[in-house]
Design goal:
1 helix; globular
Length: about 70
Amino acid sequence: MAINRRLSTDQDFEEVIELQQRIRVFQDNQLIDSSSLVIRFDDSTIVTQSGVSDIAYHSRKECEFFLLQKR
């Protein structure tokens, strides 16, 4: 069984980047990005990469970010 951990603080995102953990991104209760790495973030935007040339920019206000951890 997996545990979803919500990411909201800068420290959460720094940890995910450091450990190269994959996240899921939801917007309006819909999954819009899954199994992506966070490569950069600031106060308003989270940048994720799921492939070599697949980079996405997500608004921190409009999206929810979750780390999927295995038990």
